């Protein structure tokens, strides 16, 4: 008789267990679905936008590359050290060693020649992860204008994990600078 009672009680216990698991699962899904989604507010945003995982909006690439160029070529001997610290956070890790050597050479030249540089951006265009910044670069030696030229910076970016010092989640992996050579002046 005990065997018969065990067989008769088994299906209701199984059904009750399955119903219990389904209720717990349904409550968990409802709680997750009703939880407010995180909202990221970007202080400098001019309009609302949506960011898809893995995608980098062209506006973000343009803004990051423009900031990079401004930090890269706006300097004086007094501001070169802090500028290099900012650039270190903007340059991709795999490109840092080569960039660091070039920046150290530039640092020596700037300090010895009391050189300063100013960049005035004219236009910024992005296509994917490559950004082109057209600008005017003025170079000063000992407080005198030495050279003024139109320059095109081609900056190639890559995604990297966002950090507090670099919330863009981008890093510079390559940079090419094209300087327009001015036409020779004719003497009157």
Say how many strands there are: 4
CATH superfamily of the largest domain: VirB8 protein
Overall geometry comes to elongated
Q: Largest beta sheet, briefly?
A: 4 strands, antiparallel
Which blocks of ≥5 consecutive residues have pLDDT under 50?
Answer: none
Based on the structure given, which CATH architecture of the largest domain is correct? Roll
CATH class of the largest domain: Alpha Beta
CA radius of gyration is: 29 Å
Number of domains: 2
Task: Describe what you observe in this structure.
- The protein is of the alpha+beta class and 188 residues long.
- The chain folds into 2 domains: 8-38; 58-179, Nuclear Transport Factor 2, Chain: A.
- Helix content is 41%, strand content 27%.
- It has 4 helices and 4 strands.
- The chain has helices spanning 2-34, 58-73, 80-90, 96-113; strands spanning 115-127, 130-141, 144-159, 170-179.
- A 4-stranded antiparallel sheet has the order 1-2-3-4.
- A hairpin with a 2-residue loop joins strand 1 (115-127) and strand 2.
- Helix 3 runs antiparallel to helix 4 (96-113).
- The longest helix has 33 residues, at 2-34.
- It starts with a helix and ends in a 9-residue tail after the last strand.
């Amino acid at each position: 008789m005990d065997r018969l009672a065990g067989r008769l009680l088994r299906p209701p216990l199984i059904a009750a267990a399955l119903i219990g698991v389904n209720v717990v699962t349904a409550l968990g899904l409802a709680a997750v679905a009703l939880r407010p989604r995180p909202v990221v507010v970007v202080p400098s945003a001019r309009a609302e936008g949506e960011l898809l995982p893995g995608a980098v909006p062209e506006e973000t690439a343009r803004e990051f590359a423009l900031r990079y160029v401004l930090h890269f070529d706006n300097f004086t001997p007094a501001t070169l050290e802090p500028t290099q610290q900012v650039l270190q956070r903007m340059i991709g890790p795999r490109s840092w060693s080569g960039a660091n050597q070039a920046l150290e050479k530039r640092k020596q030249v700037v300090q010895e020649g009391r050189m300063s540089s100013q960049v005035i951006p004219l236009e910024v265009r992005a296509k994917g992860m490559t950004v082109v910044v057209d600008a005017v670069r003025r170079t000063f030696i000992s407080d005198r204008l030495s050279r003024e030229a139109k320059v095109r910076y081609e900056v190639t970016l890559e995604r990297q994990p966002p950090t507090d010092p670099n919330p863009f989640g981008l890093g510079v992996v390559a940079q090419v600078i094209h300087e327009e050579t001015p036409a020779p002046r004719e003497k009157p």
